[in-house]
Amino acid sequence: MKGTVSLATIADRQNHDARDNAATLPLWLVLLGNLLMGVSLWLIGAGGMVAKLILLGFWIALLCRFARQVPVGGGLLIGGLILAALTGLIATGNGASLEKLRLVGNLLMLPVGLLIGRMVGRDSLGLMIPVLVLYLLLSSSFQMTHEGLRLNQPFLFLGLFALCSVARWRGHRVLAAAAGVAVLLSQTRIAVLAMLVNLIGMIRFSRAMTWLVGVIVLAGVGWIAMSHLPRLFLTHGSGRLAFWQDFWGLWQGGSVGQRWLGFGAGAVEETLSGYQSFASFGALHNDHFRMLFETGILGAGLWLFGWGVMLWSVRHARLAVCILFSAMLTMVTDNTLNYGHYLICCGIASGIAARAGCDHG
After folding, report:
1. Which residues contact 144 (CB under 8 A, 6 or more apart)?
2. What's this model's pTM, rounded to 2 decimal places?
3. C-alpha distances in angstroms, 253 versus 100, 243, 332?
4. Domain range annotation of the chain
């Protein structure tokens, strides 16, 4: 009986993969998607909101194409209500209209990507991976810092790693390994940690060979990193702690309304602009704290509740949970909300993993 069940399960999975990999997007849409994603990526360096508007606009338009396939369940309704409430709080709060629009757009990236992954499946990878690989090949370079050479674009490589972790075409493991090496060479500690969390979701811990090979590989990579990537093991916070303490004091010293409703969208950058070190530091480097400061206790509560809903909605797939958690983790010490392309990649990858039920437990 066990053999019969096992064979039936394998056959069912093969049929599911065949349906999931079947071409459902017309060629013109694939080409248009790559073109628009390419334009969006190349506009990153120009700053502003144009790159994000193209990115978000295309994926929302694609999502509308599959709107009839969206199962209107409790999780989707609750998530939509949370997002609507948070958007309303931002829109009615303090801050310039442009900053409000930017913050709302940033908040939409991950949920939109998650829906795309769930509805479109692995076909969405063909709209993102080819042009992302081309962009990284043409734009990546080593930059000299006081801590040595570091490869730029760590979060785009991290997004590529997430997409490759749910791919099923020949060579995806090689591309994932290349993206992983690039993340290591960036010497961005939080990006490396997030990649390891993503990797946990990919590993089949029930296999003895996994432990044998894994220990050897981990020891080898660890030795190489300690010898040639010393920044990964430094414990300094690059001045973050001092800024967090200042902003915590500002938040505590605010009025009751400011503590509950926040100081308004864009308040973090406006406050930091008064610091002499603003040019080198740039932002708060903690999106969770940023949400508390700009949207108050109510906004931070909605923010955390929204994360809980997303994680609960993909709880059946360990890989999906790990990808979402890795993105959440990067927000502890970086400005991940500003990295729209990375968030879209994580959302799509997590949605695909949830759709396929990729639990490698």
Report:
1. none
2. 0.88
3. 23, 15, 23
4. 2-356
